[in-house]
Specification:
heterotrimer, A alpha+beta, B alpha+beta, C alpha+beta, B: alpha+beta, DNA polymerase, domain 1, 2 domains, five-stranded mixed β-sheet, 5 helices, C: alpha+beta, Aldehyde Oxidoreductase, domain 4
């Protein structure tokens, strides 16, 4: 790797100040599973690494009145072992399990993954169907937003150069909501998603309430399938209804042709996986 | 910059440029060449070591980040008198051929058995998913890990 | 089909869970000796019994592998050792107009550079010597090395590569082997891209095809495959005071390598010592020299030992790969599924340089008709140059590609004629004293017995029902 400076700031505020001071030549380092690879092959302008992985303010998983807070520097490995996450957000845990392999999950942070912002980020759909919000901290203080608003495009988030992703919140009312996640990759491990999908919903007197469907790797950012959701809302679930919703979801996506798969194959995956996550969510909801 | 770590029970330190990875520091500045450089991008797992209780790709971890940490490498598995049960079983089953994946495999397997002493075959595969092997086809490696798990459990209950 | 897969998986799970190594003496070592190299390893049982065949043999290298003490090239360092990096071509086919290393040589830590025109004899190869050590003046694929740099640290060598200025005049390139066959295609070397061919004729294939009840034709293609040995190619070169060079290298064929070094360095073999070390996977990809002459010359220039390890990127674009085959199979059978004639055309995508194509085309051609008794055979095989990664030896050497073709076609034939796929192979398969496609009498043939026993063990009959 090219010569770089490495600084461990003492606090989040200090980190923000450092990033502000160095501008484009500095970047925050979390787990490094993406950044360190980039630094080895295409470092660009980066000269200073600001290691935020150990900052206390960005760690911790706790449940409060507001909901479930996950610090941005929590690793996927930690999420998978955390009892609160296992109980309250099992599909986020399931999504975490599909990321890379053990070693990458022990380094890779949920915040780092969201900031790298590849369309196929595995935790994104699972978080989106739970109405997750993110907190961003910068020189002007903190701001909060729904996670969908955080993503702008491939590898682009709303973060200003001096800003950091502080934590991810899942609202209290969404905890334990019946949900399901499914990912299809060319291998079972260490594979990018060709398509990943999550769904969450409730059943109220036999009718679908507040359905959520989110898809990754099929558009410039992870997206909600809003038309598919409104097709389901208030309806009695049937196999046909689910398939219709799945087909509508396909129309809301823009999958690409690349060396991993054709757009056509991806469309078939979207339909099939959306059916699957909806069916599984309904099964969980029916048991309640 | 000065990096101080505890490796295999021994305090060690090295003065390395800030951009040095943990893998490079272990191999070139501390003479611990067990962890290998296979891809340098965290895909092959030959660089796997344990840092503060969790297995990581040392090619992706900056050496400076490991400052103050407890690191276990393949050199720390056997002690002066005995092989680790994993090393015994790998040898008995003939689990390694060229051996290049060995250190990483053994560390990942140790990390698994330390947390989950009675894994299923699926759990072993999942735990080793980040360690590639081009020679063996993995079957004997998995058998050896299952067998080592049995050995470690029987050793404990017998004690 | 799904049920069958589940059964197989369940059985495998059982096998793996229950697997136990045959009992041996416990592996604790004497308490007054540390567990380190060198070790007195217990003598393998196989060596102590007669006959050894059928006895369990343990790998003697397993102990050091498990301890992580096996020394691969990259684990070896020498005092004052330098690191070398190679700048590779920017074009698949181009003429080098100029190379300017002056800026690179001024970079900190850089002690030597090397270009192709400095190599005493810039050609080598196991069959034809058509491959340069460092390409000059023509580059023929993106993986061709052009300039080598030796510096005190790896990063300094990598930084220096960025300062090297190479001017290229791009030439027309050819990627598709079928296009490369044509007379008007861009030429990689010389007047034609067809650099080796093989013909095997037996009987009268055209007549037999006319007399067949059914004729099947299909084209099969296989893809590029890279060995991906976990250990990248690596070598170290060092000279002694008597003008002898020693190479520690991951190279597998060291006598051939020594010949290539003697040739490229224009030195007598007696002054070249080649140490083939423990290797982290070869699979055919480490069967010829790569950087060794470069390192020898850099080491001579710099007066210090020089090491070079391929990056994983180098492994993919520069080290040899398996030949993609394009295979046209025309097979004539009678109504009982017996093969009367087989006509095959093989086109090997031969990459930018010959490497081990001679062996690959030979093996591929002879094995192309498959292990079946066929009286009328015509195999025409061609290897063509393309401006892509050099195709070389990889386990199978042409056999896997043709196997895919002839076995796929057997299934096609079986399906079309309504014959059991196992049955049709038993009808046509070799037996003792069958003749190979080149009329060699085959002995110790266990083809039909193996198929039958395997089919029993897999439950072939039950599965068919």
């Amino acid at each position: 790797m090219r010569a770089l400076d490495y600084i461990v700031p003492e606090s989040a505020a200090a980190a923000v100040a450092l990033l502000n001071e160095h501008g484009e030549t500095a970047c925050p380092l979390a787990g490094g599973t993406d950044l360190v690879v980039d630094l080895k092959h295409s470092p660009g302008n980066i000269q200073v690494l600001v290691d935020v992985s150990g900052l206390e303010e960005f760690h911790g998983i706790e449940e409060t009145e507001k909901g479930l807070r996950i610090g941005s520097m929590v690793t996927y490995g930690e999420i998978m072992e955390n009892p609160i996450c296992i109980e309250k957000i099992p599909e986020v845990v399931a999504a975490s399990h599909t990321v890379g392999a053990v070693q990458t999950r022990n380094l890779g942070t949920i915040g780092g993954n969201l900031v790298t912002c590849v369309p196929s980020a595995d935790s994104a759909p699972a978080l989106m169907v739970l109405d997750a919000e993110v907190t961003v901290t910068g020189t002007d203080g903190d701001r909060c937003m729904p996670i969908e608003d955080f993503f702008i495009g491939p590898r682009k988030t709303i973060l200003e150069p001096h800003e950091l992703l502080a934590d991810i919140w899942i609202p209290k009312k969404m905890l334990g909501k019946p949900s399901s996640f499914s990912k299809f990759g060319l291998r079972k491990g260490q594979a990018l998603a060709l398509v990943n999908v999550a769904a969450a919903l409730e059943l109220d007197k036999g009718k679908i309430l507040e359905p959520r469907i989110a898809l990754g790797a099929v558009a410039p950012t992870p997206i909600r399938a809003l038309k598919a959701e409104s097709h389901l809302a208030g309806q009695k679930p049937t196999a046909d209804l689910i398939d219709e919703a799945a087909q509508i979801a396909v129309t809301e996506t823009k999958p690409i042709d690349d060396f991993r798969a054709s757009a056509n194959y991806r469309r078939q995956l979207i339909r099939r996986l959306t059916q699957r996550v909806l069916t599984q969510s309904l099964e969980i909801a029916a048991e309640r | 910059m000065l990096v101080e770590i505890n490796v295999n029970g021994e305090p060690r330190s090295a003065d390395v440029p800030p951009e040095t990875t943990l893998l490079k520091m272990l191999r070139e500045d501390m003479g611990l060449t067990g962890a290998k450089l296979g891809c340098d991008v965290g895909d092959c797992g030959t660089c796997t070591v344990i840092v503060d209780g969790v297995s990581v790709n040392s090619c992706l971890m900056m050496a400076a980040r490991a400052n103050g940490s407890k690191v276990t490498t393949i050199e720390g598995l056997a002690n002066a008198n005995e092989l680790h049960p994993l090393q015994e079983k790998f040898e008995e089953h003939g689990a390694l051929q060229c051996g290049f994946c060995g250190p990483g495999m053994l560390i990942s397997a140790k990390s698994l058995l330390d947390k989950n002493p009675e894994p299923t075959v699926f759990e072993v595969r999942d735990a080793l998913a980040g360690n590639l092997c081009r020679c063996t086809g993995y079957t004997k490696i998995i058998e050896a890990v299952m067998d080592a798990g049995r050995e470690m459990r029987s050793g404990q209950s017998g004690a | 089909m799904a049920t069958r897969t589940k059964d197989i998986r369940a059985d495998t799970e059982e096998l793996v869970t229950e697997a136990k190594a045959p009992s041996r003496q416990p592996l604790t070592v004497p308490t007054d000796k540390p567990v380190a190299y060198p070790l007195d390893l217990p003598e393998g049982e196989a060596r102590l019994r007669t006959p050894a065949v059928g006895q369990r043999a343990s790998r003697p290298d397993g102990r050091l592998h498990g301890l992580g003490q096996t020394q691969y090239i990259d684990d070896i360092t020498f005092p004052h050792m330098l690191h070398a990096k190679i700048l590779r071509s920017e074009y698949p086919h181009a003429r080098i107009l100029s190379i300017d290393t002056s800026e690179a040589e001024k970079m900190p830590g850089v002690l030597a550079t090397l270009t192709g025109d400095e190599i005493p004899e810039n050609s080598f190869g196991p069959t034809f010597q058509d491959q340069p050590v460092l390409a000059y003046p023509i580059v023929r694929h993106r993986g061709d090395g052009v300039v080598a740099v030796a510096a005190v640290t790896e990063q300094q060598a990598t930084d220096a590569l960025e300062k090297i200025k190479v001017e290229y005049e791009p030439l027309p390139h050819v990627f598709d082997p079928m296009e490369a066959l044509e007379d008007d295609s861009p030429k990689v070397h010389g007047e034609t891209n067809i650099y080796t061919s093989k013909t095997i004729k037996k009987g009268d294939v055209e007549k037999a095809l006319k007399e067949s009840d059914h004729v099947f034709h299909r084209q099969f293609r296989t893809q590029m495959v890279e060995h991906v040995p976990l250990e990248p190619h690596a070598s170290i070169a060092s000279w002694d005071g008597n003008g002898r060079v020693t190479l520690w290298t991951s190279l597998g064929r060291i006598t051939l390598g020594r010949e290539d070094l003697a040739r490229t360095l224009a030195m007598p073999q007696s002054k070249i010592r080649l140490i083939g070390t423990v290797v982290g996977g070869n699979f055919g990809g480490k069967n010829e020299i790569t950087n060794e002459p470069i390192l020898a010359l850099l080491s001579k220039k710099a007066g210090r030992p020089v090491k070079s390890v391929f990056t994983r990127g180098d492994e993919f674009i520069s080290s040899t790969i398996r030949h993609p085959f394009t295979m046209d199979y025309t097979t004539g059978v009678d109504n009982s599924g017996k093969i009367l004639a087989r006509k095959i055309r093989l086109v090997l995508d031969g990459g930018a340089y010959c490497s081990w194509t001679g062996t690959t085309i030979g093996k591929g051609s002879i094995l192309a008709p498959g292990p079946y008794n066929i009286d009328n055979i015509l195999v025409e095989a061609y290897a063509v140059y393309t401006n892509k990664t050099t195709t070389g030896a990889m386990r199978g050497f042409g056999a896997p590609q043709v196997c895919f073709a002839y076995e796929s076609q057997m299934d096609d034939i079986a399906d079309a004629l309504g014959i059991d796929p196992l049955e049709i192979r038993l009808r046509n398969g070799f037996s003792e004293n069958s003749l190979s496609p080149t009329s060699q009498t085959l002995q110790s043939v266990a083809l039909k017995e193996s198929l039958t026993q395997a089919a029993e063990r897999f439950g072939w009959k039950e599965w068919q029902e």
